[in-house]
Every structure is written in structure tokens, then in C-alpha cells.
């Protein structure tokens, strides 16, 4: 019994399943004002599919689709990277199962990684006493 993963762990590992469960629990979800976090989750899914739907493989990003996504949605991050091979490197990093495509799960790890980096900067800035 103690070996059973907690429900939270399972949900964490399957964020999409979590959303599906959630929408089943709340059939009127679209009628309910989503919270900030729920909107952020929805945005992630919408942004991913805005680019992943462009070719035959609708549930994954090809390198071309990833490039378009990053150039449009993460332009300032991309500009800060001077290496022209950045997209190739990111693609290689993200594609954990090596199928040459970036799934939503793989894409989310990029967003999480960037969010963690941003949060660290936020922490540093809030630690530094503001000079007056
Ligand atoms: Ca695609
Ligand atoms: Ca992949």
C-alpha cells in the first residue's frame, strides 16, 4: 500500500490526463471563469497546437514548427541566444525519445526550464534591497 504512488504524483506525471479529468468533473468549465493558473495551462496547450497542427503530425512539433513557435512566442529569449544553432540544440535537448519531433510533454519541459530560470532571477531581484 505504501508503494502506491499518491494521486498527486500521478496527476503531476500526467498533466493532460489531469486536465481531462478536470473537465469531466466540471462539464461547464468553459462557462466558469478560469483561474490564472488554469488560463496559463490552457494557453500552453493552445500555443503548442497553434504550431504543431501545421503539418501532418498534429500532436508533435517538427523542427520547423518548433522554430516558428520560438521565433514568435519566445522571441526575446531567442534573441538573447547568439548561437545560430540554438534551435538545433534545443530540439536535441527536448526530443527525449529521439523521434525527431517534440511532443507536448517534451515541449513543457522547455517551458518549465525557462520558468525556473525566470523565477530564480525573480528571487535574486527580490532579495536585493532596492537602492533609494
Ligand atoms: Ca506537427
Ligand atoms: Ca520526441
UniProtKB/TrEMBL annotation:
<keyword id="KW-0479">Metal-binding</keyword>
<dbReference type="Pfam" id="PF00036">
    <property type="entry name" value="EF-hand_1"/>
</dbReference>
<keyword id="KW-0106">Calcium</keyword>
<dbReference type="InterPro" id="IPR013787">
    <property type="entry name" value="S100_Ca-bd_sub"/>
</dbReference>
<feature type="domain" description="EF-hand">
    <location>
        <begin position="82"/>
        <end position="117"/>
    </location>
</feature>
<dbReference type="InterPro" id="IPR018247">
    <property type="entry name" value="EF_Hand_1_Ca_BS"/>
</dbReference>
<keyword id="KW-0677">Repeat</keyword>
<dbReference type="InterPro" id="IPR001751">
    <property type="entry name" value="S100/CaBP7/8-like_CS"/>
</dbReference>
<dbReference type="GO" id="GO:0005615">
    <property type="term" value="C:extracellular space"/>
</dbReference>
<protein>
    <recommendedName>
        <fullName>Protein S100</fullName>
    </recommendedName>
</protein>
<dbReference type="GO" id="GO:0005509">
    <property type="term" value="F:calcium ion binding"/>
</dbReference>
<dbReference type="InterPro" id="IPR002048">
    <property type="entry name" value="EF_hand_dom"/>
</dbReference>
<dbReference type="InterPro" id="IPR011992">
    <property type="entry name" value="EF-hand-dom_pair"/>
</dbReference>
<dbReference type="Pfam" id="PF01023">
    <property type="entry name" value="S_100"/>
</dbReference>
<dbReference type="GO" id="GO:0005737">
    <property type="term" value="C:cytoplasm"/>
</dbReference>
<dbReference type="GO" id="GO:0048306">
    <property type="term" value="F:calcium-dependent protein binding"/>
</dbReference>
